[in-house]
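Assess this one:
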Amino acid sequence: MMSQIPSAHSEYLQAIFALEEGGVPAIQARIGDWLGVSRASVSEMVRKLQGEGMVAETTGAVRLTGEGRVVAESVVRRHRLAECFLSEVLRLPWVKVHAEAAVWEHVISDDVEAAMLMAMREPKTCPHGNPIPGMGYEAPPTTTISEMKVGEARVIERIGEELEGDIEMMEFLDIAGLHPGSEIEVVGHTPHDVMTVQTAGSDPVGLGSFASDRIRVIFDPEAAEKS
């Protein structure tokens, strides 16, 4: 089925999936921003995908249908598997694997996908901490850095895909030590929504609202009640 889906269609389905995964309504403007295309282009493609039964549109937001989700999950799975392979096997820096995987995801066959899963012992998440669809990953309760308070310390669970595509942002996060599994502490919060955070042994860095809204940290309800 994947070979019958044009790459442009799958890119739209992948964008809608990622927005839904991040808890963000997939309105057409956001889809356009994600893909770097005009609102007119988004409207045209949404109409095509609706005609194919891949998406539906309600209250201004585009959502995946059951059939559309199957295709989207297949594309996302191969993308994140490719990221794992590029990072773990080929040792490509984790900040660069997103762009490379965007090319690989369209050419991975069923046999290659199965071989990659076996070679890497069935990874559950990509190098950025995002779940690989179909691998049974059960994510812990999470919140975003933007919801943390000054003095709170939490562990990064994953980096949102909207940040993965920004190589300068990823290099910044890498240098600052902001990786999945790293414990961070909020040490400041300006009136302009800049969060100042730091990890052990690193200097404090500032994160604007766009980044702090898209980096999820593990939420511990018991620790929150004590704070």
Q: What stands out?
A: The radius of gyration is 18 Å. The first strand starts at residue 55 and ends at 58.
